[in-house]
Amino acid sequence: MIGKQTKGTSFGGCVRYVLKEEKSKLLEAAGVDGTPEQMAEQFELQALLNDKVKNIVGHTSLNFSPEDGERLKSDDALMLQIAHDYMKLMGIENTQYIIARHIDREHPHCHIVFNRVDNDGKTISDKNDFHRNEKVCKMLTAKYRLHFANGKDHIKEERLRPYDRAKHEIYKALKEELPKAQNWDELKEALADLPIKVYAGTDAICQIVEDSEIDIVLTAMVGYAGLKPTMNAIRARKPIALANKETLVVAGELINDMARLSGTPILPVDSEHSAVFQCLAGELGNPIEKVILTASGGPFRNCTMEQLATVTKAQALKHPNWDMGAKITIDSASMMNKGFEVIEAKWLFGVRPDQIEVVVHPQSIIHSMVQFEDGAVKAQLGMPDMRLPIQYAFSYPQRLKASFPRLDFKMCTNLTFEQPDTTRFRNLALAYEALHKGGNMPCIVNAANEVVVAAFLRDEISFLGMSDVIEKAMSIVSFVAKPEYEDYVATDAMTRRIAQELIK
To answer: Residue 408 gets which letter from DSSP?
Structure first.
């Protein structure tokens, strides 16, 4: 038996899939009833008890070996008991759930859909859930004397959808050739007769983005690493859906010049910049007075300097509104992320630094605003959900129908705004300073920040100490007023070396 886990933010599609009439049989439901649509609504309603849980949908499929097919074929009670044991061992208790078995495959399997917001509004933890899932499945396989599934080797290829069939063909080819290959070049040569391309090494991503079959490139790498692949994509005239803000932070002028010369559009994906982009739709020729970027303020918005001095890594990684990776979460806590967004806004929208304002908006409902010369302010509102800006970048200028959660104004009774404190959160002030200075100074700030964040995550530097190192690096590293690409590379390397020395 193996368990496959997924999480999501909306119950509608998941419940409809699990309860598809022609292939499913509902074994048990707790806390929900009615049609799949009604069940989904009941799931969503309970999730409102805890608005801090973003991935509210828990979904696990329990898949059994074909060798257990006869035993489980007509024994719903046994499959239900196994599902119950699985849920108990995984800590899925005191919450809404449905258990349904599917009969569309030769191997028996069932689906568990549960609410990660339990009946008391508490969160059902997903900590180490993939490891725990593997352990629990092995335990239950032994307890019920089941067979260990043989995985992909027993798949009926003729029943696979085209996308899944392609993945299976890759799996078979790799299983055959990978043990024989001593390096990536040998593997590439062995697969040359098949429609499978092999990319490896530091230039792999740069090569992939140039592929003729790619229509648009979503750049979502963290930090400086996204710069070169983005440049290669622009040279290949691929439209850019930009989530890697550091690309414009480090080399905004260079990237803009390249995009203009190649005629490559850059579509923002960051929620704030996507919001500004949406506000500007239909406003061609109407001058911007200022761009207003909203900030949540992070977990330490109300902390004193004394409290900030003792901030731990665990505390900094708990963002109140967004579920993000470690690096960007720390950047958000220090407000460096907002500083980078200020720099990015200059290059995306062609505004001066004094035309970019940051406003702290803890609820993260208004994602950003634009003020025009007549005094009118347009704002983009929505749930804190990155799927919308991603989809908008992919579908622009169209708006496609989506099942994402909707903003409920009955729940938005208190929207507040305040000015950011650049004394407590110096990183925002340092970013503005770098933007005013120009040249390679934003590159210096970015490189130093990447070093200090990594050090903070290793408990090698304090929360406030990160700003100290960044500020010192800005004064030490050589300033270049009109940098070329090679200058950015040299600046990045030099800054990282100096920042490491400053930490020691």
So the answer is: -
Helices (H), 382-438: 387-395, 426-437
Cα–Cα dist 65/69, whole Å: 7
| Residues counted in the chain | 504
Name the E strands within 190-339: 217-219, 240-242, 266-268, 288-295
Q: Exposed (0-12), middle (13-18) or buried (19+): which is 84, by Cβ within 10 Å?
A: middle
From the list 352, 348, 338, the residue with the least C-alpha distance to 255 is 348
β-bridge mates for residue 28, sequence order: 99
Which DSSP category does 255 fall into? H
Per DSSP, 7 falls in state E
Question: pLDDT of 205-252, one tens digit each?
Answer: 888 898 888 999 999 888 888 899 999 999 999 999 999 999 999 999
The pLDDT confidence band at residue 155, using thresholds 50, 70 and 90, is low
Strands (E), 145-295: 217-219, 240-242, 266-268, 288-295
- Kindly state the DSSP code that residue 157 receives in the 8-state scheme: G
- Is this model's pTM higher than 0.85 or not? no
d(CA 409, CA 338): 26
CB 99 within 8 A of CB 28: yes
What is the fold of 2-153?
BirA Bifunctional Protein; domain 2 (3.30.930)
Q: What sign results for the dihedral spanned by CA atoms 32, 33, 37, 42?
A: negative
Pull the structure tokens for residue 417: 């705004």
User: Could you tell me which residues come within 8 angstroms of residue 141 by beta carbon, excluding any fewer than 6 positions away?
Assistant: 1, 147, 148
One-character DSSP codes across 470-504 = HHHHHHHSPP-SS--HHHHHHHHHHHHHHHHHHH-
Q: 332 near 427, Cβ under 8 Å?
A: no
> Residue 125's closest CA among 96, 90, 88, 86?
90
Q: Cα–Cα distance between 52 and 117 in angstroms, integer?
A: 10
Neighbour tally for 147: CB within 10 Å: 14
Looking at the chain, which residues constitute the CATH 3.30.930.30 domain(s)? 2-153
Q: How far apart are CA 281 and CA 274, in angstroms?
A: 11
Q: Token match 């480090």: residue?
A: 250
Query: Which residue type, as a one-letter code, is found at position 40?
Result: A
